[in-house]
Amino acid sequence: MAPGPNRSSGGDGGSGASASREGATVKIPSKDPKKKDDKKDEDLSEEDLALKQQLELYVERVQDPNPGLQKVALESMRQEIRSATSSMTSVPKPLKFLRPHYGTLKACYETMPESDLKSYLADILSVLALTMSAEGERESLKYRLLGSRGDIGSWGHEYVRNLAGEISQEYTKRQGEEAFINDLMELVQQIVAFHMQHNAEPEAVDLLMEVEDLEILMEHIDTANFKRTCLYLTSAARYLPGPDDVEVLKIAYKIYLRFKEYAKAIQIALFLDDMAKVKEVFTSCDDLLQKKQFCYILARHGITYEVDEEMVADDDDREVLQEIVNNSKLSEGYLTLARDIEVMETKSPEDIYKAHLLDGRASAGASVDSARQNLACNICQCICKCRIWAG
Amino acid sequence: MLTRDSAQLDKYFHSSDNHVTNGALLGVGIVNCNIKNDCDPALALLGDYVDREDASTRIGAIIGLGLAYAGSQNEQIRSKLSPILNDAKASLDVIAFTAVSLGLIYVGSCNEEVAQSIIYILMDREESELGEPLVRLLPLALGLLYLGKQENVEVTAEVAKTFNEKIRKHCEMTLLSCAYAGTGNVLKIQNLLGHCAQHLEKGETHQGPAVLGIALVAMAEELGLDMAIRSLEHLLQYGEQNIRRAVPLALGLLCISNPKVNVMDTLSRLSHDADSEVAMAAVISLGLIGAGTNNARIAGMLRNLSSYYYKDASLLFCVRIAQGLVHLGKGLLTLNPYHSERFLLSPTALAGLITTLHACLDMKAIILGKYHYVLYFLVLAMQPRMLMTVDENLKPLSVPVRVGQAVDVVGQAGRPKTITGFQTHSTPVLLAAGDRAELATEKYIPLSPMLEGFVILKENPDYRED
């Protein structure tokens, strides 16, 4: 009966706890599971009880040799599970009630002849394996690969996430054995499509990084999700060991270029220190004003860069751009800022030292080496006044 | 801009006093720093002075060239400066600064020839000379060539293993830290920490660069930065003398122009340390973390330090420098080499910072000695910390913007706000470390998604006046 396995698992937990608490009341743990189970049976509402019995009926029917009955039973079980798992506010009732029958269903699967029904059963087993399979067994994945290749999303978010986790484990194992991974990759495609559609871009990217195939990402990017994806990619690149970090940034660069976010693309190019990519951005972009903005970014970065004919055809425009890259505009801008904030007058060392705020002891410092003092004074002064003059 | 500055500097060129002309040469370099010009005025002005007799004139011109052409990989200048490296008669300081300038000019380029010349000097010089304080600039110059280039430094590192005992480990540490600077590579940080954990033989100096190296590698992103700050505090407790001298500098590098209160407190504690070198490093680092912020708390601390150390000339010197740094450009500048929402690292800026910090490792001999002008390498990192919006004709345009703390929204659902705790200002605005700006009006579209520095605004064709 249903409470059976629960009791044993509850009992195990209870006895474990009592062992650690050495000598504390031994009686209590053994009573609790029974109480719990009784409570459970009582707690079950009318509907739940009906559902439970229904599911038990289906399980029996599945074991029935008649394929017609099997089909009906499987279909109905599928329906029940699907309608429950699509909204995850609590443990889906069908999954809970089917738990004890996992073993029987698995055995039934082994003995079944090949047919559509078998793949339906595999699907159901795959979902049940979410909670039932032992750690590291990857049964959910195993049954998924054996099942019908239907829409993966209809089984719910949690299922997809669990599969993704199992795929990465399976992938590492297969890499070690140098086995085929095509079936895994098919599944990966489906999962990535699902995640990208449901605004879970970081999870899609994570899965693709595990299976080392970020190129798949390019097919699933669109204007709605590219920004978040690229933000995640560029942030994750900081924490990845090479050469992954470079790969990730190259993908981000391609995405930005495709969606015409040129300023961000040029930043990634600068981060990768790849002048060819910088040139590519210049040539891909048509807007002269945008190119001027690139030049400002390059100027701030402090690298020496030559704007050549391929990037800008017109000579005058090229001169303007080259001027910006050469940072000649910096002084103008800086002086405008200074004027705006009204700090144009230079400070004297006395202003900086604010000697008047000190206690009187400073005057006793006449014994200090005056050359040093003057030197300090000068350096201090010019650091302050600098940039007002600097080109 | 250049003509006006040339006029200003010109009068100093014609002075009779050697030091004034040397200063003018350095000044030309500073003025041309981060600017490129097709007519190469800096080369024209400084080129001749490189070959003069007087060592300090040569050094002034060489550093000037290094500052003016940092990152440009200019062949002409290399042909001018390389012969000096190969000149056996030149004094060690001229050679050291030539190497550093070449390192700056070819920063991150992995240039074989320059690397070979520097390696040759290190192998060639006698052991007695290798003990000089300025010799630490040579491995630094070698490191600058491979700044951020990771594995490309392997070959040179192998060669470095054949150097003399005195300089071998120092070289190794410097090369490693420069090659992985700004990468956040955890394995290298662990390697460097391992070196710092060892007990030293007498006279070994390599743990200082190792500590700086930890800061260099870890500064890549926020989490690594915080972790590195914690490790450095541990190093303070268990480290040898030369580690304790380097830790304040490393802290200064990690939080450059970003006055974090916990780091401020640590440095304040260290500035009263019994070992005067540690105190000096801590004071300069206080200046570094508050660089260009006008932070009142740091300014107050430094004022108190100036009265505390009123009798000690060297420490007072450091306090004055730090005070100057805090008011850098009257609060309009920053020394932070990172830009574009802390995504991109400017190699020339970082090179300038590293050079100054390596020189500060040996405070008494270099900064407080004859070579105080090494501090001027900081100008490579000086950048305005502003947001300036310009219109389509590149003329300044004032628009309302919201400026607030940046929020990390990676992986968050929906379209979360990217700034918090904001105030509305009109451009141009100043951005502190960790700040982000966004346009407060629909009237314009920015052509860059990151609102920093110069941003061109385009009129929004869909905008309707309400």
Summarize the structure.
The complex is a heterodimer of chains A (391) and B (466). Chain A has helices at residues 3-20, 27-43, 46-62, 67-85, 93-98, 102-111, 116-132, 139-146, 157-177, 182-197, 201-210, 217-220, 226-237, 244-258, 262-271, 275-284, 288-301, 315-325, 329-341, 349-353, 370-385.
Shape of chain B: globular
Rg over alpha carbons of chain B:
23 Å
- Mean pLDDT of chain A, rounded to whole units? 75
Which whole number gives the mean pLDDT of chain B? 87
Describe the main β-sheet of chain B briefly. 4 strands, mixed
Counting helices, strands and paired strands, the structural category of chain B is: alpha+beta
Q: What would you say this structure looks like, in words?
A:
- The complex is a heterodimer of chains A (391) and B (466).
- Chain A has 391 residues and is an all-alpha fold.
- Chain A has 21 helices and no strands.
- In chain A, helix 1 packs antiparallel against helix 2.
- Chain A starts with a helix and ends in a 6-residue tail after the last helix.
- Chain B has a domain at 387-459.
- Chain B has 466 residues and is of the alpha+beta class.
- The mean pLDDT of chain B is 87.
- In chain B, the strands form 4 sheets. Chain B has a 4-stranded mixed beta sheet, with no helix packed on it.
- Chain B is built from 20 helices and 11 strands.
- At the A-B interface, helix 13, helix 15, helix 17, helix 18 and helix 19 of A face helix 1, helix 17, helix 18, helix 19 and strand 4 of B.
